[in-house]
């Protein structure tokens, strides 16, 4: 079997040994895989047992499914209360019988249940895949968000739109089988714990980062080379540099005293880009165009105050400035990236842009996992981007292209007003259609959904 990972066999062995050592150090973690095996045995006797399903009453089956849902990791069970389970019980029972008794191949069964004609709304991968694993312990691994995040770090992308659910599951299964062959002590249950180790435990996160750094060719260099060839022509960089120089000169001469036309010209300059053989004004998509700029112009005094403070602040005050900006949210429609834009123009070799799409791309490519907007967060993010730029020889004017291409996927449409973040937000809202969810992500909805729609309608 060919190694599907971006780490060599030797590095994968180190990672698996690290998982085993960490598990042994903590009694709760040591028991995890064994507890999962016991749960799988119980499932095999009940929810994936045709005889059991044929004889149990609907009331008792609903209670057992409810009890099972409460054992799921993460928030998967939140919306699966007794009313919803009772409402969908005929379809759930149909799927369980199909999984238990059909002669169809395991991956075809999984695809039909997860995305095909047997799909049940709300009952997603986190609900079904532990049941799949109980039925096929050596074919269908457990699969949740941690699985995708961990495997993406080491070169296996299960979130790509290029593969259907059946082929994604085959890819996942091959990855688990490859790791099990490297270390026969592992099974799919202990390997599932690797997903937690590599995404939630600092020891595991750091270990993966170190192994990727030590790997002489982890595939990322060639990937970045491909992106640069396809997306970053010399003309594009020169247009960006020229526009940045003009914006910098404007700040040098008028920071803190912009009039309306100055502010509009400033945002026009920082948005200047070159794509498909023409100059465009969409470098940062919807962040600083249209309605957003109009709202910023209305707050000219406070915008001027923050521009001059960021432009002139000593390096020792940067962290506190970001703390204050993120906690006070003083400028409506400025977004979280605004302070980084001013610092970036001040010194592109030292300070990096910090847009949300870039943050996600950095996480995808390097495993960067710090969260929560603060001065400390920006410093950590900035250091990681600088390290990434240095390692791959990237210019300041191309780092946002590279990180945003990764966030959107290799085939991102540069002209599309919507980002991967847009659809992630919509999926989140679909799963959690509450005012609390919207309010928690209100700024993201405005930037990635509402503003792009408004821009489209204006153009129409």
Largest sheet report: 2 strands, antiparallel
Whole-Å distance between the termini?
Answer: 53 Å
In angstroms, what is the radius of gyration?
A: 25 Å
Mean pLDDT: 88
- Count the E strands: 2
Count of discrete alpha- or pi-helical segments spanning 4 or more residues: 25
- Proportion in helices: 55-70%
**Structural class by SSE content:** mainly alpha
In words, what does this structure look like?
The protein is mainly α and 460 residues long. The protein is built from 25 helices and two strands. It has a two-stranded antiparallel sheet. A hairpin with a 2-residue loop joins β1 and β2. α9 (145-153) packs across α11 and α20 (356-366) packs across α22 (396-408). The longest helix is centred in the middle third of the chain and has 21 residues, at 234-254. The protein is elongated and about 80 Å long. The chain starts with 8 loop residues before the first helix and ends with a helix. The model is unreliable at 410-415 (pLDDT under 50).
Brief overview, please?
The protein has helices spanning 9-25, 27-45, 50-55, 58-69, 82-87, 89-101, 106-114, 125-135, 145-153, 165-182, 188-199, 202-214, 220-231, 234-254, 260-270, 290-298, 300-312, 318-328, 338-346, 356-366, 375-392, 396-408, 420-431, 435-440, 442-459; strands spanning 273-275, 278-280.
